[in-house]
Amino acid sequence: MPMIELLFIPGSLRQASSSRATVRALIKRVEDSATCVTADPGLLPHYNADILDDPAVKAFIDQVAHANGLVFVTPEYNYSVPGVLKNAIDWASRPAMKSVFKDKHCFVMSVSGGALGGVRAQGHLKYSLNGMLAKVFGCPEIVVPMANDKVENGFLTDERILTFAEEQLRAFMTALSESVPDIR
Ligand SMILES: Cc1cc2nc3c(=O)[nH]c(=O)nc-3n(C[C@H](O)[C@H](O)[C@H](O)COP(=O)(O)O)c2cc1C
């Protein structure tokens, strides 16, 4: 029986990113139970409706379409979602209300260098996803405050937050497997 496919979408491009470190640590915890793929929003050009045949755009939209669930780990930039992540979302959001996001199951968490863990960006991201008719998983907000202090060798090290995030992510995966026939 095929496994659930999760597409992880980090909202930061930098090498030492705490978002990417969080994605890596989460994948390590759930890869026994799901096929985990990581998207790279940095490969996409700036959104331009005149660009109709960009291979990176097509590849990203195909990744979103193919995944059973999307896992966003976004940092907070100026109280909102980083432009690079919003750009990726905008690309995959067309045609409006009928895009690959329609009815797509989404799991959202956030990181930040500050004390609030990116909770404002997380709220903005959920609002945008709802606007595209995606299905945002309802769970307590998962935030990683002071995230840059918690990265070692490319992995988030905060066991308490990771355990909580894993619990919520596994609940998301269970909900996904119940909604997709013939999958585990
Ligand atoms: C342009 C910019 C804006 C930022 N704005 C915020 C902010 O509004 N709130 C916050 O908590 N941190 C803010 N930060 C700090 C980020 O949370 C921090 O750099 C974080 O590590 C970025 O995620 P990353 O580690 O995945 O790259 C900002 C950082 C940048 C570069």
From TrEMBL:
Enzyme Commission number(s): 1.-.-.-
> Is Ribosomal protein tagged as a keyword?
no
Q: What is this protein called?
A: NADPH-dependent FMN reductase
Q: Which UniProt keywords apply?
A: Oxidoreductase
Q: Specify the taxonomic lineage.
A: Bacteria, Pseudomonadati, Pseudomonadota, Alphaproteobacteria, Hyphomicrobiales
What organism does the record attribute this protein to? Neorhizobium phenanthreniclasticum
A molecular-function term among this protein's GO annotations: oxidoreductase activity
InterPro entries given in the database record = Flavoprotein-like_sf, FMN_Rdtase-like_dom, NAD(P)H-dep_reductase
Please name the Pfam families in this protein's record. FMN_red
